[in-house]
Amino acid sequence: MGSRRRPLLVGALLAVVAVASCVPGAWSAGEAGNATTTPTFGDNFEITGAEDHVKTSADGQTWYLYLDQKTGVGFQTKQRYLFGWFSMKLKLVGNDSAGVVTAYYMCSDVDAAPQRDELDFEFLGNRTGQPYIIQTNVYHNGVGGREMRHSLWFDPTADFHSYSILWNAKNIV
Protein backbone atom coordinates (compact mmCIF):
# COMPACT_ATOMS: atom_id res chain seq x y z
CA MET A 1 0.00 0.00 0.00
CA GLY A 2 1.31 3.41 -0.92
CA SER A 3 3.15 5.43 1.69
CA ARG A 4 0.96 8.46 0.94
CA ARG A 5 -2.15 6.59 2.03
CA ARG A 6 -2.80 6.71 5.75
CA PRO A 7 -5.31 4.21 7.04
CA LEU A 8 -8.22 4.82 9.35
CA LEU A 9 -9.02 2.15 11.91
CA VAL A 10 -12.73 1.50 11.74
CA GLY A 11 -14.84 -0.68 13.98
CA ALA A 12 -17.88 -0.88 11.80
CA LEU A 13 -20.11 -2.78 14.11
CA LEU A 14 -22.97 -3.78 11.92
CA ALA A 15 -23.63 -6.42 14.50
CA VAL A 16 -24.11 -6.84 18.18
CA VAL A 17 -20.87 -6.61 20.04
CA ALA A 18 -21.51 -6.83 23.75
CA VAL A 19 -18.36 -4.91 24.64
CA ALA A 20 -15.51 -3.56 22.57
CA SER A 21 -12.34 -1.73 23.43
CA CYS A 22 -9.53 -0.73 21.15
CA VAL A 23 -6.03 0.53 21.74
CA PRO A 24 -4.29 1.99 18.70
CA GLY A 25 -0.63 1.45 19.48
CA ALA A 26 0.34 3.34 16.39
CA TRP A 27 2.31 6.34 15.30
CA SER A 28 -0.16 9.03 14.39
CA ALA A 29 0.11 10.98 11.20
CA GLY A 30 -1.30 13.95 13.14
CA GLU A 31 -0.07 15.78 16.21
CA ALA A 32 1.28 13.82 19.17
CA GLY A 33 -0.92 13.68 22.26
CA ASN A 34 -0.02 14.64 25.80
CA ALA A 35 2.15 11.80 27.16
CA THR A 36 1.36 12.62 30.82
CA THR A 37 -2.32 11.67 30.65
CA THR A 38 -4.01 8.42 29.68
CA PRO A 39 -6.24 9.11 26.70
CA THR A 40 -9.81 7.85 26.83
CA PHE A 41 -11.47 5.87 24.08
CA GLY A 42 -13.38 9.02 23.09
CA ASP A 43 -10.15 10.99 22.67
CA ASN A 44 -9.13 8.72 19.79
CA PHE A 45 -12.44 7.52 18.32
CA GLU A 46 -15.77 8.92 17.21
CA ILE A 47 -19.11 7.16 17.01
CA THR A 48 -20.62 6.42 13.60
CA GLY A 49 -24.24 5.41 13.70
CA ALA A 50 -26.67 5.39 16.58
CA GLU A 51 -25.01 7.32 19.42
CA ASP A 52 -27.70 6.17 21.85
CA HIS A 53 -26.44 2.59 21.35
CA VAL A 54 -23.11 3.33 23.08
CA LYS A 55 -22.29 3.36 26.79
CA THR A 56 -18.88 4.23 28.18
CA SER A 57 -17.09 2.68 31.15
CA ALA A 58 -16.41 4.92 34.17
CA ASP A 59 -12.72 5.26 33.21
CA GLY A 60 -13.56 6.04 29.57
CA GLN A 61 -11.42 3.14 28.30
CA THR A 62 -14.20 0.86 27.07
CA TRP A 63 -17.26 1.45 24.94
CA TYR A 64 -20.24 -0.89 25.18
CA LEU A 65 -22.03 -1.10 21.83
CA TYR A 66 -25.56 -2.38 21.32
CA LEU A 67 -27.62 -3.43 18.32
CA ASP A 68 -31.37 -3.77 18.15
CA GLN A 69 -33.82 -4.74 15.40
CA LYS A 70 -33.56 -1.29 13.78
CA THR A 71 -29.98 -0.10 13.83
CA GLY A 72 -26.33 -0.81 14.51
CA VAL A 73 -23.44 1.32 15.68
CA GLY A 74 -19.78 1.77 14.88
CA PHE A 75 -16.76 3.94 15.50
CA GLN A 76 -13.67 5.14 13.70
CA THR A 77 -10.40 6.83 14.57
CA LYS A 78 -10.30 10.60 14.64
CA GLN A 79 -6.75 10.58 13.28
CA ARG A 80 -5.03 8.71 10.49
CA TYR A 81 -2.12 6.37 11.18
CA LEU A 82 0.80 5.59 8.91
CA PHE A 83 2.09 2.46 10.68
CA GLY A 84 1.58 0.69 13.97
CA TRP A 85 0.09 -2.08 16.06
CA PHE A 86 -3.69 -2.07 15.93
CA SER A 87 -5.53 -4.31 18.34
CA MET A 88 -9.23 -4.76 19.01
CA LYS A 89 -10.67 -6.66 21.99
CA LEU A 90 -14.07 -8.09 21.15
CA LYS A 91 -16.65 -10.26 22.81
CA LEU A 92 -19.27 -11.35 20.29
CA VAL A 93 -22.94 -11.79 21.03
CA GLY A 94 -24.02 -15.33 21.86
CA ASN A 95 -26.92 -17.49 20.74
CA ASP A 96 -28.52 -17.18 17.29
CA SER A 97 -26.81 -14.32 15.45
CA ALA A 98 -27.39 -15.44 11.85
CA GLY A 99 -27.42 -12.49 9.48
CA VAL A 100 -25.30 -10.32 11.77
CA VAL A 101 -21.78 -9.26 10.79
CA THR A 102 -19.28 -7.65 13.16
CA ALA A 103 -16.51 -5.97 11.19
CA TYR A 104 -13.11 -4.58 12.23
CA TYR A 105 -11.23 -3.07 9.35
CA MET A 106 -8.68 -0.49 8.29
CA CYS A 107 -8.91 1.54 5.12
CA SER A 108 -6.83 4.18 3.37
CA ASP A 109 -9.75 6.61 3.16
CA VAL A 110 -13.44 5.99 3.67
CA ASP A 111 -14.26 8.35 0.79
CA ALA A 112 -11.68 6.87 -1.62
CA ALA A 113 -13.95 4.06 -2.84
CA PRO A 114 -13.71 2.33 -5.22
CA GLN A 115 -9.89 2.76 -5.22
CA ARG A 116 -9.20 2.51 -1.50
CA ASP A 117 -6.91 0.06 0.28
CA GLU A 118 -8.49 -2.01 3.04
CA LEU A 119 -7.77 -4.82 5.54
CA ASP A 120 -10.86 -6.63 6.88
CA PHE A 121 -11.78 -8.87 9.80
CA GLU A 122 -15.46 -9.86 9.56
CA PHE A 123 -17.10 -12.08 12.15
CA LEU A 124 -20.06 -13.79 10.52
CA GLY A 125 -23.12 -14.49 12.63
CA ASN A 126 -24.23 -18.07 13.10
CA ARG A 127 -26.96 -20.40 14.28
CA THR A 128 -26.80 -21.52 17.90
CA GLY A 129 -24.35 -24.39 18.29
CA GLN A 130 -22.52 -23.76 15.01
CA PRO A 131 -18.89 -22.56 14.93
CA TYR A 132 -18.19 -18.88 14.38
CA ILE A 133 -16.41 -17.94 11.17
CA ILE A 134 -14.00 -15.07 10.67
CA GLN A 135 -13.67 -13.81 7.12
CA THR A 136 -10.62 -11.76 6.11
CA ASN A 137 -9.88 -9.80 2.98
CA VAL A 138 -7.26 -7.41 1.62
CA TYR A 139 -7.99 -4.73 -0.97
CA HIS A 140 -5.32 -2.80 -2.87
CA ASN A 141 -6.41 0.04 -5.14
CA GLY A 142 -9.97 -1.23 -4.77
CA VAL A 143 -9.17 -4.79 -5.86
CA GLY A 144 -9.86 -7.61 -3.38
CA GLY A 145 -9.99 -11.26 -4.30
CA ARG A 146 -7.99 -12.38 -1.27
CA GLU A 147 -10.99 -13.40 0.81
CA MET A 148 -10.47 -16.26 3.26
CA ARG A 149 -12.76 -17.88 5.83
CA HIS A 150 -11.61 -19.57 9.02
CA SER A 151 -13.68 -21.48 11.59
CA LEU A 152 -12.72 -20.30 15.05
CA TRP A 153 -11.44 -23.01 17.42
CA PHE A 154 -12.73 -21.10 20.46
CA ASP A 155 -16.00 -19.50 21.51
CA PRO A 156 -15.73 -15.73 20.78
CA THR A 157 -18.84 -15.13 22.91
CA ALA A 158 -17.38 -16.61 26.14
CA ASP A 159 -14.82 -13.89 26.80
CA PHE A 160 -12.90 -11.03 25.21
CA HIS A 161 -10.33 -11.95 22.59
CA SER A 162 -7.75 -9.72 20.92
CA TYR A 163 -7.54 -9.43 17.15
CA SER A 164 -4.48 -7.52 15.99
CA ILE A 165 -2.71 -6.17 12.93
CA LEU A 166 0.95 -5.19 12.84
CA TRP A 167 1.47 -2.76 9.98
CA ASN A 168 4.94 -1.43 9.20
CA ALA A 169 6.74 -0.14 6.13
CA LYS A 170 7.46 -3.63 4.82
CA ASN A 171 4.80 -6.01 6.15
CA ILE A 172 1.24 -6.42 7.26
CA VAL A 173 0.89 -9.25 9.79
From TrEMBL:
Domain GH16, residue spans: 31-173
Active site residues according to the UniProt entry: E118, E122
Biological process, per Gene Ontology: carbohydrate metabolic process
Keywords for the protein's UniProt record, in alphabetical order: Glycosidase, Hydrolase, Signal
Signal peptide: 1-28
Gene Ontology molecular function terms on file: hydrolase activity, hydrolyzing O-glycosyl compounds
Pfam family, one: Glyco_hydro_16
Keyword set includes NADP: no
Signal is among the record's keywords: yes
Superkingdom of the source species: Eukaryota
Alphabetized PANTHER family for the sequence: XYLOGLUCAN ENDOTRANSGLUCOSYLASE/HYDROLASE PROTEIN 8-RELATED
Name the UniProt record assigns to this protein: GH16 domain-containing protein
Organism annotation: Eragrostis curvula
